[in-house]
Amino acid sequence: MPHQDLQLLGHDCGSCPIRHRAVCARCDADELQQLEHIKYYRSYQAGQTVIWSGDRMDFVASVVTGIATLTQTMEDGRRQMVGLLLPSDFVGRPGRPAAAYDVTAATDLVMCCFRKKPFEELMTKTPHVAQRLLEMTLDELDAAREWMLLLGRKTAREKIASLLSIIARRDASLKLKSATGAVAFDLPLTREEMADYLGLTLETVSRQMSALKRDGVIGLEGKRHIMVPDFDLLVEEAGDDSDGGFLV
Amino acid sequence: MPHQDLQLLGHDCGSCPIRHRAVCARCDADELQQLEHIKYYRSYQAGQTVIWSGDRMDFVASVVTGIATLTQTMEDGRRQMVGLLLPSDFVGRPGRPAAAYDVTAATDLVMCCFRKKPFEELMTKTPHVAQRLLEMTLDELDAAREWMLLLGRKTAREKIASLLSIIARRDASLKLKSATGAVAFDLPLTREEMADYLGLTLETVSRQMSALKRDGVIGLEGKRHIMVPDFDLLVEEAGDDSDGGFLV
DNA sequence: CGCAGAATTGATACATCTCAAGCTGGGTGG
DNA sequence: CCACCCAGCTTGAGATGTATCAATTCTGCG
């Protein structure tokens, strides 16, 4: 059962922190008002399950604050994370009645939910929501393909460095900065969640984190706070083509 | 330079073999006529490169016949396939000037290309193309996530069985049949391409193919023709949840 | 016929997994 | 206030699956 605090903040789209990046980014005043009508907020505590794969899902949503994960599980318990949702990311698929993945709150989480039926109607009647959703889905597809390269071909060390640089970049972009030089951020994931992201065991994640620390690529303060003295070095360790991925 | 046979077949959308599945599936007569105006066909021989990652790309396209692959390559030569495009699948991203992946013809290939600029205009002016593209992109994202589970958590044997069952299913669906009982099909990929798909080496692919043959899960006629006596057994070997994935 | 690309098979190396034992830090109850 | 506890994490030793390197063996084709 979701912990259903009605948030006082953010009831008005105009002052919403993800107003300019989420699925509603392109909406005009009229469309926004229609969305206001069908939206409601939900909060989850870190660790709570938002929805189980296969469950009926009669809403779609945007992440407002916090981080959620999408995971797939095999019958024997092997788990693979297939999505990492940051503020402004979209959850759910219009036209699909049930959830295809487990959705979990990795940190405390606030989502802006839209009742699915009216949301679908809005999509067919006005263009801006569908346009923006297409754009976001194409971006996610690109991210998924980058992730496939990571899973299929990178070494454990490269995988860790890749994940850290991805989080650093997205964290910087949420703060409207760009990731260069010295960078610091909090890991929103446990070692086990990192392992599920990377297709590794948590022991291997731990060992490689220690190795990167030993080699001076990263510094640790507690388990969660990461300091990166030279972001370019981290990117190099990730094995990515040097450019910051400016293909748009 | 693409081998640019103008195809005699298929100049008319009405008789196009992918008319009801491709990005144009929802178009009305008027929209279809606009598409006719900006489309042209291109043919490629098996092995030819359609476009290199980073190259300027001033068209988007649908695969009409044959199979194309999307691959990413790291600086040191490690390769990962990130897309397998069958007839009706879409190539290219509206709004992006350059190709993000290498696109290669795995078999002889015919593509229906649309000049990008007018295609983008058509997308903003009429709803049906954008709607269908969104739907197709969401499907691809689901496929990519399934693929991520494969890359991150499956054993070599499970990977091979998964790939074979995916190809068997898509092959059956193109023939408007469903994959059950005894099934047979041609592999459109070399061992090396299979390895690039699965995040393995070609030697491991070869060994696991031999193992599946030895165990009677598959039969081989030549290198490319696969016979599956019991499709359910193959799916079991793939480690997937038993159901045929009917989440829509 | 014989060649070249594709595939198979073998022997060995090595990265990561597995199993197992401690460590650490923050919260709780005596 | 301290001892304890527990989840999360680290580290170690050994097992194992896949990669690597190296021959052969197919197979289709000029």
Number of helices of chain A: 7
Decide which structural class fits the backbone of chain A.
Answer: alpha+beta
- Helix percent of chain A reads 25-40%
Q: Which term fits the overall shape of chain A?
A: globular
Distance between the termini of chain A: 39 Å
Q: Give the strand line-up of the largest sheet of chain A.
A: 1-8-3-6
Strand content of chain A: 15-25%
Main sheet: strands, sense, barrel of chain A: 4 strands, antiparallel
Strand runs of chain A, count: 11
* CATH homologous superfamily assignment of the largest domain in chain A: Jelly Rolls
Mean pLDDT of chain A: 92
Q: According to CATH, what is the class of the largest domain in chain A?
A: Mainly Beta
Rounded to an integer in angstroms, the radius of gyration calculated over CA atoms of chain A is: 19 Å
Based on the coordinates given, report the CATH architecture of the largest domain in chain A: Sandwich
Low-confidence stretches of chain A: 1-8, 244-248
Number of domains of chain A: 2
Q: What multimeric state do the chains show?
A: homodimer
Description:
- Two copies of one chain form a homodimer.
- Chain A has 248 residues and is an alpha+beta fold.
- Chain A has two domains: 4-140, Jelly Rolls; 154-237, Arc Repressor Mutant, subunit A.
- The first copy, chain A, is built from seven helices and eleven strands.
- In chain A, strand 10 (219-221) and strand 11 (225-228) form a beta hairpin.
- The longest helix of chain A has 27 residues, at 127-153.
- The first copy, chain A, is globular and about 55 Å long.
- The model of chain A is unreliable at 1-8 and 244-248 (pLDDT under 50).
- The A-B interface holds A 54, 70, 72, 74-76, 78-80, 82-83, 93, 95-98, 100-101, 124, 127, 130-131, 133-135, 137-138, 140-142, 144-149, 151-153, 198-199, 239, 241, 247-248 and B 70, 72, 74-76, 78-80, 82-83, 93, 95-98, 100-101, 124, 127, 130-131, 133-135, 137-138, 140-142, 144-149, 151-153, 198-199, 239-241, 247-248.
- The structure holds a DNA duplex (30 and 30 nucleotides).
